[in-house]
Task: structure prediction
Amino acid sequence: MTVLELRNVTKCYPSAEGVETLTILHNVNLTLGPGESLAVVGPSGSGKSTLLNLMGSLDRPTNGQVLLEGQDLTQIAEPELAALRNRRIGFVFQSHYLLPQCSVLENVLVPTLVCAETALRKTAEERARRWLDKVGLSERLAHRPAQLSGGERQRVAVVRALINEPRILLADEPTGALDTASAKAWATCCPVESGRKNHFSSGDACARIGGAHGTGDGIARGAGEGVGGRRDA
Result:
């Protein structure tokens, strides 16, 4: 069964002069199966974040289809798409985007506030406390983001991304701002409670093997390895 699929995806932007278009991604095709991990690596500006945004339905392709468990995300209206993102897609952003006025526990629970599944909401705090303990943050529950190290904020972001038990986890340059030790910690904490979920990561989590253009250049895969698979697509 295919969990996520891109079919002939192209993304273009108009140029500043409005005459020519800038093609960021051209005719990209890829599939992601249950429990599979995938990383796309390449130089800055090669389209990694654009690809991630398209996969997570934060942006729409100029042409092509993005399918999540067979459902074409390009054909869904925004209100329904927002609910789908909340329940089925977890995001870890480059800048974390933790709310500075909220504690670690409160930040993790933010996505559950609009979750439509009552049973999932009822067990959210217990789940958050358990997962934060597993990533070594049980003594930081009441701390604000400004009181945390970069690696600790990253772990909070990972747990927040997993709190609604999404089908896929998308991470944009998850180790870009971390030192070597913290980067290794990311690779171990990412799949801590994710079970058969899929992981897609961009950035420096793998050795650089090329750009992100075309039909799979710069994509590395791994089965159940979290970030850092080494099998070329």
